[in-house]
Structure to design on (438 residues):
């Protein structure tokens, strides 16, 4: 499979998924004009990725400063995919990065963390 | 008692669907599997929805806060811009004319100095000095006012004797008063203490006393007195001079109108003195008032809070 890199725009985050290093990065703002169109290839890549990994540890860094409601639905779906994979034996570390000054993003992170049971979700100050 | 929730109906549906899924008698129903999937998905969706609502509410609140902040900021910028406009208009009007007269006299001196008698030259040198003094006074006030606007002047109140500071300012202006035969009396007793910023109170007193001298006739009298209420010290400066018409009284403290008129001995003003006084008195949570009758005299009263509540 190929790595996935999408540069950031004003409305969409930078995506840097590296299957060889087992690192995923989602960074920036997320309010694309069409959330489904933007995230479709990303979700597909993640589905392919979790199908082909064994017991390697994957680190997923999320550093998001603003996102719209449909993006938050997509984030939850992605995290659910990973949580389900972790339940079957995959190992995932999610790092939710937030600015020290930005308590709102910290609280959002706590919301995303809430329903996840099988992966480790860290809230980290930038 | 269960927690109040906007999702009671959804929670009921989830509870009922679980009862049905768990009930063995429905296991053989051909729709059982679809129903079970639906129930599981509904619950998952419900949890996502619940969390998304929280996130969304929080984000909307944050946007509102940001909007408020920007609106306030905008208002502040508008005021600053108005202040800046006023500042430039003062520079344009009030700084230009004294500099002009300054230049005119120097031009005459440079080009025609040999045509004048010594007595005339002494006179002109006196005029140059007057113009220079006035220019300096205007600049000083302008810069002081600009610094207050920029909040560069720290407000540092102290407790000290009112009597001492009043006498200090009278003595600074005694010469001007003597020239017009004006008698300045202070009725302030030695034990009165005020809580004020000394630099500011000096400027306030200097401006008000020199105004009183300016607009008093030869042989006039100026009286400085003190009274107090529960929260305020009140200081008044009274003269029996030319007075100020009602129409002009309203404009005295406004920077955008900026009136100035010459004194009884043709003393020039800056039009900034009272504006400055008002700003500084407001820093003390106080008020400045005027009571004047043209032809009879003027009283300026200002109050200083005994213990100012800090608003900034």
């Amino acid at each position: 499979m190929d790595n996935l890199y999408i540069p950031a725009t004003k409305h969409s985050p930078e995506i840097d998924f590296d299957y060889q290093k087992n690192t995923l990065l989602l960074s920036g703002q997320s309010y694309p004009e069409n959330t489904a169109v933007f995230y479709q290839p990303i979700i597909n890549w993640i589905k392919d990725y979790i199908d082909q990994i064994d017991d390697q540890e994957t680190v997923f860094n999320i550093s998001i400063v603003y996102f719209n409601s449909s993006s938050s639905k997509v984030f939850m779906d992605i995290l659910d995919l990973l949580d389900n994979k972790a339940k079957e034996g995959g190992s995932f570390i999610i790092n939710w990065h937030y600015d020290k000054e930005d308590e709102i993003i910290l609280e959002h992170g706590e919301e995303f963390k809430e329903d996840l049971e099988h992966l480790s979700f860290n809230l980290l100050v930038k | 008692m269960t927690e109040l929730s906007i999702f009671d109906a959804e929670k009921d549906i989830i509870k009922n669907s679980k009862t049905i899924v768990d009930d063995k008698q429905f296991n053989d129903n051909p729709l059982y599997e679809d129903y079970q999937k639906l129930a599981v998905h509904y619950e998952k969706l419900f949890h996502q929805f619940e969390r998304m609502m929280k996130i969304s509410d929080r984000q909307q609140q944050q946007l509102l806060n940001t909007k408020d902040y920007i609106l306030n900021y905008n208002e502040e910028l508008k005021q600053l811009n108005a202040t800046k406009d006023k500042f430039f208009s003062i520079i344009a009007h009030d700084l230009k004319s004294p500099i002009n007269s300054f230049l005119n006299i120097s031009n005459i001196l440079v080009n025609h100095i040999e045509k004048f008698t010594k007595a005339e030259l002494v006179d002109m040198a006196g005029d140059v000095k007057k113009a220079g003094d006035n220019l300096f006074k205007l600049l000083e006030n302008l810069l002081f006012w600009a610094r207050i606007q920029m909040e560069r002047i720290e407000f540092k109140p102290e407790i000290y004797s009112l009597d001492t500071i009043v006498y200090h300012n009278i003595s600074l202006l005694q010469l001007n008063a003597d020239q017009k035969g004006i008698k300045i009396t202070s009725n302030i007793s030695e034990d009165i203490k005020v809580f004020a910023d000394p630099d500011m109170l000096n400027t306030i007193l200097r401006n008000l006393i020199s105004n009183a001298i300016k607009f008093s006739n030869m042989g006039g009298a100026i009286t400085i007195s003190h009274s107090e209420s529960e929260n305020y010290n009140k200081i008044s400066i009274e003269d029996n001079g030319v007075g100020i018409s009602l129409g002009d009284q309203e404009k005295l403290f406004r920077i955008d109108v900026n009136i100035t008129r010459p004194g009884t001995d043709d003393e020039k003003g800056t039009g900034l003195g009272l504006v400055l006084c008002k700003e500084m008195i407001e820093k003390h949570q106080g008020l400045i008032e005027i009571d004047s009758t043209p032809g009879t005299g003027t009283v300026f009263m200002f109050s200083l809070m005994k213990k100012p509540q800090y608003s900034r």
Notes: The radius of gyration of chain A is 14 Å. Chain A is about 40% helix and 35% strand.
